[in-house]
UniProtKB/TrEMBL annotation:
Annotated GO MF terms: hexosyltransferase activity
One Pfam family this sequence matches: GT87
Source domain of life: Bacteria
Protein name: DUF2029 domain-containing protein
Length: 495
């Protein structure tokens, strides 16, 4: 029987990387299930392949997150506001079932809503997801509370499908490192935030797009990225890192196909609504522009500590300038690094920069970064440090809301919430620093340590550099492909 660390296809004869032999935290954690696999272990004929195991674990952890929402599902969503915060089980889903007209059979973007929000403030594909869930809820007849519960349950079922897609795509993106996807499946913040909102739809589509790019399918990547952008804005940012990497490797055809696919699929989803319901369609964009400083951002700390009144237009300008500066720094890093950075590394950095500079940080936004972090920096210690900060922020925001809605009788005061924001910012910056270090010192990159180049890079993997602004190292040569000469590892040449 084949070794448990060998792939089965002829063109993929490199060994699967066992995390318990590369990562001390993974090795210690494996003691819970009997310890690391021994050198003589054989799993080649098992039905429990890494991808299947990771998908099952991710679904199981998602279900655990659903259990964490039980106090709210049973009563706290429907009895005032403070209880859902003190139990840290808040979700937008049941509240928007009523608040955005789904309970009354209104059609998003087309039917005008009552109150301050005139139309649904979500991108079109997310609105379609919400509407399909509403249709699937129709057979469940009962009082309004029961219908809210069923709407959340139907959405949870649909989001569970997104979780399975996400787990499979992340596990398959790095062909020889499927176990890195356990970082996604076991991420504490993933468990806690998965059913707060509909972000997992965009996250799963983005992961599928990155899988397509890793397989050299540029057009499919673009189509999926366009769909992801039609569900949430942030996936569009991945075209920036791709531009830099394709520029450095001179892969303009592939980049052009990616842009074409992105634009085409986004237009296919958006143009019908744009033409038939223009006021409803643009609500997402006008709401994003007009929204003031909100929870989770360092802008909130500034306004609370100084009493400054920063208008939406002003904070939009300041945040845009900071984002442009961050992108300029990422561009300089991409074009001057000793070796072209990996796609996942730059993707993580640009999304993290958007999160850090934005005027709002909802707790479920951490889902945007989890799969990118698993691909960019697959080290359990660093990942768990960051996750610990995010869990503290998750608890902090709900305790702060409990404090503000209970007349300051219970929960976390303003200073405590500001500390939770700082923890979130510090954790994200820490992981960014680790990724930047890996780019500048490729020998410290766990993915590249064995001579691998960019397993998520598709056509960029092992491609020659053409345009660089700094010294570029020669491309890596894995031992399996070497005819003669020393084995090349990052920063180390072994005879």
């Amino acid at each position: 029987m084949p070794s448990p660390h060998k792939t089965t296809s002829a063109h993929q004869d490199r060994p699967v990387v066992p995390p318990t032999r590369r990562d001390e935290i993974a090795a210690a954690g494996s003691e819970l299930i009997g310890g690391p696999a021994g050198r003589w272990a054989r799993f080649g004929d098992s039905a429990f392949t890494p991808v299947r195991v990771i998908a099952l674990v991710a679904i199981g952890m998602f279900a655990l997150g659903m259990v964490q929402k039980l106090p709210c599902y049973n009563w706290a969503w429907f009895r005032g506001t403070s209880s859902q915060y003190t139990h840290a089980c808040y979700s937008d889903i049941p509240h928007l079932f009523i608040g955005r007209g789904f309970a009354d059979g209104l059609i998003p973007y087309f039917d005008r809503l009552g109150g301050d929000m005139e139309y649904l403030e979500y991108p079109v594909l997310t609105g379609l997801f919400m509407q399909v869930a509403s249709w699937l809820t129709l057979p469940f007849d009962g009082d309004l509370q029961y219908r809210e519960q069923m709407y959340w349950m139907v959405n949870a079922g649909m989001l569970m499908i997104c979780v399975a897609v996400l787990a499979v795509c992340v596990a398959r993106t790095h062909r020889h490192r499927p176990w890195d996807a356990l970082l996604v499946a076991l991420a504490p913040a993933f468990v806690l935030t998965a059913t707060i909102n509909w972000d997992l739809l965009a996250v799963a589509l983005t992961a599928a797009a990155m899988l397509m790019w890793s397989r050299g399918r540029a057009l499919a990547f673009g189509v999926l990225l366009g769909l992801a952008t039609a569900a949430k804005f942030y996936p569009f940012l991945l075209l920036g890192p791709l531009l830099l990497l394709c520029w450095r490797a001179w892969k303009w055809r592939e980049f052009g196909l990616a842009v074409l696919g992105t634009a085409a699929s986004w237009l296919v989803v958006n143009v019908p609504v744009m033409l038939l319901a223009p006021e409803g369609w643009k609500k997402f964009y006008s709401f994003s522009h007009d929204r003031g400083i909100d929870f989770g951002s360092f802008w909130l700390i500034i306004t609370q500590r100084t009493g400054a009144d920063i208008t939406p237009d002003a904070v939009n300008t300041y945040a845009s300038v900071l984002m442009v500066l961050a992108c300029a720094g990422i561009a300089a890093l991409a074009l001057t690094a000793p070796r072209r950075p990996r796609f996942a590394q730059l993707a993580f950095l640009v999304v993290a920069a958007f999160i850090l500079t934005n005027k709002v940080y909802s707790p479920q936004y951490v889902l945007w970064l989890i799969p990118l972090a698993a691909l960019a920096r697959p080290r359990w210690r660093d990942f768990l440090v960051w996750q610990g900060c995010e869990v503290m922020y998750f608890a902090g925001i709900w305790m702060y809301l409990a404090y503000t809605t209970s007349g300051n009788k219970q929960g976390l005061p303003t200073e405590g919430y500001q500390f939770a924001i700082l923890l979130h910012l510090a954790g994200t910056l820490f992981l960014c620093a680790m990724v930047v270090r890996d780019i500048l010192l490729p020998e410290r990159d766990g993915v590249r340590r064995d001579g691998t180049d960019d397993p998520s890079g598709g056509v960029l993997d092992r491609a020659e550099d053409v345009f660089v602004l700094g010294p570029a190292a020669p491309p890596p040569q894995h031992a399996a492909h070497a005819v003669q000469g020393p084995r090349v590892e990052w920063g180390v040449v072994r005879e």
